[in-house]
Write a structure and sequence with these properties.
7-stranded mixed beta sheet, two-stranded antiparallel sheet, 282 residues, globular, 10 helices, single chain, 9 strands, alpha/beta
């Protein structure tokens, strides 16, 4: 495999355990206050993701085999010591990732056996099969949804996937959930979108009836200058507005593979050290 060969993406079929029996958990983070939902919460990151985001800060969690394997019962044994904090604050468990909705049956089973006073939250991209979203309706108390951008071209270019499932799943949540329990987070990502694009995405989401939070996405400091010019991500490969949709999609995927591989190379330990050298700064 050459350095420029795209990494194989995680898929649903790459999971090596039955959905409803176990999941791989890459560490448990306790006593998190108002960062992953209301109250004091314990964050449980589940491995596996279908996206391949250029600036992913949890890239290792894309792989389905990362972490220690747990059954819902084993996870409950690990987190029940936090019950006093949950009861006092209205908190509970937040499943993150990776993409936690790929383990929807695991989360459903956990909800069935945990104390009913605990609240369950998920941090998700919503880019999953609709069946996984529907499996958690009435199970999840709070939804925190990370949407990189509502523009389909920018979304594809950044994540390597289309946003079709995201839009369909947003409609599912709007129709069947209390929207006051759903927070859509839209990041400003250097090299992907500017203030105007982010505001446009946020306005579209608000018009759908969702609460929206805009925030600045942190990327590695030694890579910030290289992608500060958003023309890097919006070149002629995707700028043709009258292009055939399928061809446009392929151009976006090609662009994404180029950027992701370039990012992977520059953030290896050796090259990353070179990039942080004073000669790479303006």
């Amino acid at each position: 495999m050459t350095l420029l060969q795209p990494l194989r993406k995680a898929t649903l079929t790459s999971f090596d355990m039955e959905k409803d029996k176990s999941a791989r958990i890459a560490g448990i983070s306790r006593l998190r206050i108002e960062t992953d939902g209301p109250g004091i919460r314990t964050l449980v990151p589940l491995s596996g993701c279908l996206l391949d985001c250029v600036y992913c800060i949890n890239d290792r969690l894309r792989r389905a085999y990362v972490g220690e394997e747990y059954t819902p019962e084993e996870l409950l044994d690990q987190v029940r010591l936090d019950a006093i904090y949950f009861m006092a604050s209205g908190g509970g468990i937040t499943f993150g990732g990776g993409e936690p909705l790929l383990r929807s049956e695991f989360i459903r089973h956990f909800k069935e056996i945990c104390p009913p006073e605990w609240t369950i939250a998920v941090e998700t991209s919503l880019n999953v099969p609709t069946d996984d979203v529907e499996a958690l309706l009435g199970v999840v108390d709070f939804w925190i949804v990370d949407i990189k951008d509502m523009d389909p071209k920018r979304y594809l270019e950044y994540t390597g996937e289309t946003n079709e499932r995201v839009l369909a799943n947003l409609e599912t949540l709007r129709a069947q959930c209390d929207v006051s329990k759903i927070l859509i987070r839209v990041p400003r990502i250097p090299g992907l979108n500017g203030a105007e694009e982010v505001d446009c995405s946020a306005d579209i989401i608000r018009e759908m009836g969702f609460e929206t939070e805009v925030f600045d996405y942190a990327i590695p400091e030694n890579f910030r200058n290289q992608f500060s010019d958003r023309k890097i991500l919006t070149g002629s490969l995707i700028d043709s507005s009258d292009a055939d949709p399928e061809s446009d999609r392929e151009r976006g995927k090609v662009r994404h593979r180029y950027l992701k591989n370039f990012f992977d190379i520059l953030t290896t330990p050796l090259v990353g050290a070179i990039c942080s050298n004073e000669y790479w700064t303006d």
